[in-house]
């Protein structure tokens, strides 16, 4: 597994997907997000954090997920523009928001 820090690329967009149904991995996902955001090649990338599997009954609410991730603090201190969205690949909830984000970041 390669480190983001050693990657030699310049990204303009980044999608970070969180499995909302896997509550035991929430803290690990948050640490991974912070690591990605701190990688030098990604300091100016537009970031979309996707909370996936929102249609499953065992997921926490988005408010709970955002609180555990401390998304307000992350967004306030990040060098990147960060957008968050709820997504259910099964039902399509949030898909238009993801596509809209992709479209808007392609035209930037």
Automatic annotation (TrEMBL):
Amino-acid positions noted as binding GTP in the UniProt annotation, renumbered to this chain: 52-55
UniProt keyword Nucleotide-binding present: yes
GO molecular function, one term: GTP binding
UniProt keyword list: GTP-binding, Nucleotide-binding
Gene3D superfamilies the UniProt entry points to: P-loop containing nucleotide triphosphate hydrolases
Record field: transmembrane: none
Protein known as: ADP-ribosylation factor-like 16
Species this chain originates from: Oncorhynchus mykiss
């Amino acid at each position: 597994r390669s480190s983001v820090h050693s990657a030699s690329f310049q990204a303009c967009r980044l999608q970070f997907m969180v499995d909302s149904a896997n509550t035991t991995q929430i803290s690990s996902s948050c640490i991974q997000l912070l690591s990605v955001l701190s990688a030098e090649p990604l300091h100016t990338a537009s970031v979309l954090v996707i909370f996936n599997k929102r249609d499953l009954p065992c997921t926490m609410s988005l408010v709970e997920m955002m609180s555990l991730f401390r998304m307000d603090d992350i967004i306030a201190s990040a060098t990147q523009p960060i957008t968050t969205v709820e997504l259910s690949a099964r039902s399509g909830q949030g898909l238009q928001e993801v596509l809209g984000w992709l479209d808007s970041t392609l035209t930037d």
